[in-house]
Design goal:
It is a single chain. The chain is mainly alpha-helical. The protein folds into three domains: 91 residues, Fumarase C, Chain B, domain 1 (Orthogonal Bundle); 244 residues, Up-down Bundle (Fumarase C, Chain A, domain 2); 90 residues, Orthogonal Bundle (Ribonucleotide Reductase Protein R1, domain 1). Helix content is 61%, strand content 6%. Strand 3, helix 8 and strand 4 form a beta-alpha-beta unit. The protein binds arginine (ARG).
């Protein structure tokens, strides 16, 4: 007679899995990451089985204690199931049965791995979203600190990567703060849909046992339970939504990274990279490389890839559970780890890895034509229609360029030759500090506006 297969499935199987197929099928190599959530979910399930009279209190106690022992073993590094366990769920159940005997086999009553894995992934993601939110807060705080110190530090502002109008450096940093604020809120909104319990949906159709899904959900801190068992076991919308939110965070980090890389170049020289966050070249001793922002920019593609991967994985799946869904895990884990790592690295980079070269920034805004719009605005306030003023300033710029002069170097005669409305106050009106300060419309770069924006930002950070 053939020996029974080592798998946990029913006796209908006569031969063991081909070893290569066992390895191919197994998820234990990565879903061990879920173990703490699996133990918590199982303990709640066991308590629910006791509450509903499906298990005796004594049985429930043994199970819960056994699960706790496994948790301790795992934390000590003593629980390292191999490929024969297939996945974390089987691994835990097997160990439980080793520890407490046949009672361990009762844990899976009124449950399937399908609702179990759905529960685990949601518990995992709920915790990870909170962790990422807190990393976002630290990143925002660092942006805010730079902004607070640099309200009146000017930096060239660009459109099309052409010098456009000077800005308060704080305003520039607060733009990234605002993106991160939406990222934080987006994660908060997603939690509503992550925090729904599929436990008790069974394999796909519910269960014949008189379970209390609400009770188990409450024990696990879920806000709701899925109202349709088929949907509950096969929904991964919440994971896709998270991957999307993560991708948007990465877009924002990547844009800031790109600016850091440009700013650190010889051509811009707006920042210097400090030693703790940059690396040298193996051959060119003069170089300091912006590895941190380059890696963040590079890792962005990976996160986008996971979003795409999850979408494609789902698109052809008939209801309900399909093994394809096992593929959600590595995508999610890598997304969580990548976004977390990038947020942490960018926070450190901002806190200690870059120094703004304020004199160089001052020189930059003093020696360009980015105050040209202000000349047009000046004429417009003196009654010249804006479009006509705009055309006249085109002439001003042309004359200045031809004479090799900056706008502030034109004599009053030269100004008045272009339009008699120019008076001596033109010089004050086009000084960079004034140019920035004057953009006092709500949300603009004017210092007064920036100070108000700083207050709003501080308030937002206080909101959790
Ligand atoms: N390892 C599986 C997963 O990650 C667990 C669920 C397996 N369910 C099943 N019916 N084979 O999706």
């Amino acid at each position: 007679m053939q020996s029974p297969p080592p798998q946990t499935w029913s006796q209908r199987f006569e031969t063991a899995l081909h070893p290569a197929i066992a390895r191919f099928n197994a998820s234990i190599g990565f879903d061990i990451e879920l173990i703490e959530y699996d133990l918590t979910g199982s303990a709640a399930h066991a308590k629910m089985l006791v509450k509903t009279g499906i298990l005796s209190p004594e049985e429930g106690k043994q199970i819960v204690t056994g699960l706790e022992t496994i948790r301790q073993e795992y934390r000590r590094g003593d629980f390292t199931p191999g490929v024969e366990a297939e996945d974390v769920h089987f691994a835990v159940e097997r160990r439980l049965t080793e520890l407490i005997g046949d009672v361990g086999k009762k844990l899976h009553t009124a449950r399937s791995r399908n609702d179990q894995v759905g529960t685990d992934v949601r518990l995992y993601l709920r915790a990870q979203i909170e962790a990422i939110q807190s990393l976002l807060r630290q990143y925002q705080q660092t942006l805010l600190t730079i902004a607070e110190a640099n309200v009146e530090t000017l930096i060239p502002g660009y459109t099309h990567l052409q010098r456009a109008q000077p800005l308060s450096l704080a305003h520039h940093m607060l733009a990234y703060f605002a993106m991160a604020q939406r990222d934080w809120e987006r994660l908060r909104d997603i939690q509503k849909r992550v925090n729904i319990s599929p436990l008790g949906c069974g394999a796909l159709a519910g269960t014949t046992f008189p379970i209390d899904r609400q009770y188990a959900a409450e024990l696990l801190g879920f806000e709701q339970v899925y109202g349709n068992s088929l949907d509950g076991v096969s929904d991964r919308d919440f994971a896709i939504e998270f991957a999307c939110a993560a991708s948007i965070i990465m877009v924002h980090l990547s844009r800031l990274s790109e600016e850091m890389i440009l700013w650190a170049s010889e051509e811009f020289s707006f920042v210097t990279l400090n030693d703790s966050c940059s690396t040298g070249s193996s051959i060119m001793p003069q170089k300091k490389n912006p590895d941190v922002p380059e890696l963040v920019r590079g890792k962005t593609g990976r996160v986008f890839g996971h979003l795409q991967g999850l979408l494609v994985m789902m698109k052809g799946l008939p209801l309900a559970y399909n093994k394809d869904l096992q593929e959600d895990k590595e995508a999610l884990f890598d997304t969580v780890n990548t976004v977390g790592g990038c947020l942490e690295a960018m926070t450190i980079l901002l806190a200690e890895g870059v120094t703004f070269r304020v004199p160089r920034l001052r020189q930059a805004v003093n020696e360009d034509y980015s105050n040209a719009t202000d000349v047009a605005d000046y004429l417009a306030t003196k009654g010249v229609p804006f479009r006509e003023a705009y055309n006249l300033v085109g002439q001003v710029v042309k004359t200045s360029l031809a004479a090799g002069k900056l706008l502030r170097e034109l004599t009053l005669e030269e100004w008045q030759a272009i339009h008699p409305a120019f008076e001596d106050d033109i010089y004050a009106a086009i000084a960079p500090q004034q140019v920035v300060s004057a953009r006092n419309s709500y949300g603009g770069t004017g210092f007064e506006q920036v100070r108000e924006a700083l207050q709003r930002a501080t308030q937002a950070l206080g909101e959790g």
